[in-house]
Amino acid sequence: MAISRDVYRRAAAEPHRVAVVGAHGPVTFAELAGRAERKAAELTDAGIGAGGRVDVTNEDPVELLVGLIAADQLDAAAIVGEATWPQDLRARAIDAAKQAAEPHGSNACLIVFTSGSSGTPHPVVRTRRSWIFSFPTFSVFAGVGPNDTVLIPGRLSGSLFLYGTLHALTMGAAVHLLPKWSPQAAVEAAARCTAVHVVPPMLAAIVERLDEQTSLKLAVCAGAALDHDVEERAGKLGIEVVEYYGAAELSLVAIRRPGATPGTFKPFPGVEIRVEDGVLWAKSKYLASGLAKSEDGYATVNDRVELQADGSLQVLGRDSGAISTGGSTVLPEGVERVLRQLDGVVDAAVVGREHEELGQVVVAVLEVDGKAPTASDLRQYANDQLVEAERPRIWYATDALPRTASGKVARSQVQDGLADGSLDVRTL
Asked: So what's the pLDDT on residue 216?
């Protein structure tokens, strides 16, 4: 993956430079390299070598990073799962990861996970080529270098945060790792950071709490649609926003430079795209291994897009979350984007519920900060802002929506929690 090479090189050249800030204080490049070398020796004693598979999952992000660097040094693949998984689920996931990596030998350097339809997280295998080749080009857009400290406010089991961490270290920047998302902890850390990798709800929470005196100059944002007013608030604080679109399976696909039209992306350099029946297909050297591809090398995760006349993309959402109601197809992302504009709404999840006559109806679950909007206010807002098919028929409020490791709302967990009553909600 080259991360171990870069860490050891910087440890030799600048041993006292801080590489990682964690819960237990700063870790220099020399200390990080030393811990990784000791871990690599332990793995070697355990019979791990080139082509091996190492589960580096850990609640402590610094320990996870040490394990990943050690595995990379040995040309073994690091398996990065979620530390909160139940033991039996984790065992199934690790077994699935090892099987998925088997055909790739020592070319596999990293295995992360996406949600699986069978209840077992789906492993995504990355080769060194697919992982590191985007770093130099991404740096042209993100501009992270040795003088930066990059805030990573979410768990490294989220590929968005893991990518941001490894990219920063490769570029010689320090990373400030939070073991889990906390708005207050993120704001406190931001006072000592120059850049941050976030999903849009995290950026919204941070800019709402920041004053005008912030050292943050860059926010790299992905994972969901970014509201224009959030970007405007960031801009007033002197924070430039670089937004990109991608997926764990496809890696980087498209990027939006600061100042470009909100919600529209241009293909990332080196990525070829095409749109078939409104669905995006991508071809690049960044694709994960083992993907089902067309004969000419294109792959898809079934995200729906609109291709603009100037070649830019507007990402609409994923087919798998589409709601079929009364003969119309509703993409949750678009409705969620509108609902997040409501005062007091931190985030929103939109799902479908079975209906005898309409097939499905739209259900909205709002994560609220304090007092929730009234039912009449919600209905009026929906009537003003949404077409009829998109308007939620059922409204709930909750104090905290379930989230994935990358900080995105876990819509499937919302759906399941409403079905079995495990999600703590109140009817509006």
From this structure: 95
Cα–Cα distance measured from residue 290 to residue 49, given in angstroms and rounded to the nearest whole number: 22
- The domains located in the chain, with CATH, are 1-269 (3.40.50.12780), 322-427 (3.30.300.30)
In tens, the pLDDT along 94-126 reads 999 999 998 888 889 999 987 644 456 789 999
**Identity of the residue numbered 136:** P
Tell me how far apart the alpha carbons of residues 233 and 410 are, in angstroms, rounded to a whole number. Answer: 26
AA identity, residue 276: E
Helix and strand tally (H, E) in the chain? 13, 23
Q: Can you give the pLDDT at residue 120?
A: 65
* Residue 313 phi, psi (nearest 5): -115, 145
Question: Taking the mean position of all CA atoms in its chain, how far away is CA 297?
Answer: 25
- 338 vs 352: CA distance, rounded Å: 17
Rg of the chain over all Cα atoms, to the nearest angstrom: 22
Our CA angle for 408, 60, 139, nearest 5°, is 60
Whole-angstrom Cα distance, residue 208 to residue 219? 14
Cβ–Cβ < 8 Å for 394, 377:
no
Residue 327: pLDDT band by 50, 70, 90 thresholds? low
Mean pLDDT, the chain, rounded, equals 89
Q: Report which of 319, 404, 410 is spatially closest to residue 81, judged by C-alpha positions.
A: 404
Cβ contacts of residue 360 below 8 Å, gap of 6+? 323, 324, 325, 352, 353, 354
Q: How many residues does the chain have?
A: 428
pLDDT recorded at residue 117: 41
Which tokens hold the place of 254?
A: 């498209």
The answer to whether the beta carbons of residues 330 and 359 sit under 8 Å apart is no
133 near 139, Cβ under 8 Å?
no
From residue 258, alpha-carbon distances to 218, 327, 413, 427 in Å are 10, 38, 33, 39
pLDDT at position 118, please?
A: 42
- Taking the C-alpha atoms of residue 101 and residue 121, their distance in angstroms, rounded to an integer, is 15
Q: How far apart are the first and last CA of the chain?
A: 50
363 and 352 Cβ atoms separated by less than 8 Å: yes
pLDDT surpasses 50 at 205: yes
Token look-up 């920047």 returns 173
How would you class 89 by CB atoms within 10 Å of its CB: exposed for 0-12, middle for 13-18, buried for 19 or more?
middle
- Phi/psi of residue 127, each to 5°? -90, 165
- Report pTM: 0.81
